Amino acid sequence: MPLRAAPVAASASAVADPVDALIKSIRIPPRPSLLADLQAELASSDPSPERIGRIVAADVGMAGALLKLANSSLFGGRRAKSIEQAILFLGINQVAALMTGLLARQAIPVQSAALANFWDVSTKRSHAMVFLSRRLRIGAPDIAHTFGLFCDTGMPLLVQRFPDYEATFLDAGAEEHRPFTALEDERHHTNHAAVGTLLARNWGLSGEVAWAILHHHDYSVLDDEHTDDAVRSLVALSLLAERALRRYQGHAGSPEWNKGGARACAYLSLDEIEVDELLDELEEALHDD
What CATH number is given for 112-289 in this structure? Predict the structure, then answer.
């Protein structure tokens, strides 16, 4: 992991480790208090929908945004008129995942022309991940949603730290063979996957989400039986979501799919016809969202 400092010999005159200094120079936003309250309730022995409803309703803006999301077609299209109904329709875990995403958008501003649509794309990806998780019956939809939203959150944080990161972002996206993170590591000695993992851990997100963020451009994990299946599933679904998003945006191809798509299909036991049918359904759902 690029952000992990290498062991050094203890010495009174030891020079400060440059990787450690780099870590400290990247601002990781603190976990929002509302998220901490939600997570505390979810971690209790008997999570209460009523208490979760009160936590959410304490922020009027968040409550309104949550209702709008809950009523979208990708979450069933049922018309919840209150937070209580949204919790009833979606379940407490999905409501918590949606709230986590809204809080992330509020806490992590995007100050970059190259990333101007960052949160719109991340939100679409999270919705695509939910669709795929449900459609293929793989993993928990709320976990897929959270991963889809957070997997690239290291990018706006790197923009804040490195004035030239925009150029790296554009160049890395054009890489046809190497992982997206390879160029980031070369130029900045860290990458958005590693920074996103730090954010996920600091915000108390699940271990599978944090590990999947770290490895979401390392498609070799799809062949690694020693990697947790929950992590491999998230990485595989993210490739399908990426391909669907590219089609939704009008792009002819997907560099990431070219790098890892075959491995994703093998892991998910999907053939090309099944993938095309699935992507057609998902693209239609994204347009209706």
Answer: 1.10.3210.10
